[in-house]
Amino acid sequence: MAIQQTITMATLGRPFHLGMLYDIRSDKLIPNVTLWDPQTLADHTITYKQPYTGYEIITEDSLQDKAHALGVEASLKLSLLGGLMNISGSAKYAEDYQKTNREARLILKYSTTTHFQELTMKHLGKDNLDLHDKNNATHVVIGVLYGAEAFFIFDRTLSKGESKEEFSNSLKAIFDKSISENEGEANLNLTDQEKKYVNKLPCKLYEDFRLNKNPKNFEEAVKIYRQLSLRIGESAIPKKVLLYPLYLLDDNVTRIVREISSSLIDYSISTIENLRSLEVRALDLSENSIFTSLNYMREQLLNFTEQLSEMQRDLKEKIALYLPELRGNTSVEESVLF
Fold this sequence. Notes:
Elements: E1 7-10, E2 20-23, E3 28-34, H1 38-43, E4 45-58, H2 63-70, H3 76-82, E5 103-119, H4 121-124, E6 139-157, H5 164-179, H6 192-198, E7 203-207, H7 218-235, E8 237-245, H8 262-286, H9 295-328
Antiparallel strand pairs: 1-8, 2-3, 2-6, 4-5, 5-6, 6-7, 6-8
Helix pairs in contact: 3-9, 8-9
């Protein structure tokens, strides 16, 4: 089925701006080419305030959960999976996966938006546009939502008898308490038991803010979190864009853009997820004490994990190779991936 409507899409840290051209088949920005000159763009741009700030606590680590947290929808998930895009900032969170099942993970997502800029297309019109040499672009950016996000990732090795659910619930309660306190508070008002629980809890941060340093532990993470709302004025970047099909501007533009079926998207993602899950389980098993005296079996397990990793790489490379063709060529069947 051909894509016919205007599309809202997550930027994933890519440098979009109004009037920029885009090829949705390869998910590539087309730099240094616009349909209108800077003055025309400025004369037809409307800016709306769109203030929002919120947080979310994420306990799952699958690609589907990461895509949801980043606002990635439809076949853009496959572009993310296949590495078609040069993502940056908070979007790099999508590439950070747990490497063992002996750890529990909890992610604190901070999200804020500031304003939305939009081109008034009905006034720009179709006059004096020649789209035939625009580097095979399929869409033009007519709207940009500005804001910023941050993902604080906490991993903890589980003690004997401790469940992931127990860890998540305990840390979530401490999160809710800590980040709801006054932004100006210098210290965390934690009980001795809570301090013991989060003591030396490491933190990784993927963010769109230009911070001087990243947090090393829970306490530093909360202090940085409390300051983020004060930094958004200088850190707002494009977070979502509105893409307008070029054929609506020029009837002679006949570039094929085909949607990818949801079944292929889901199957591709689940296949990669299952291979990754099996790889993690095999790596954990290879470190079991029983293999201390069974080194040859441990080597077989490690060889197996390498094969699983290679299978993931091969599938991702096939996605990167064939996805643009699937979107732009009706003669290519989806079965080419499997």
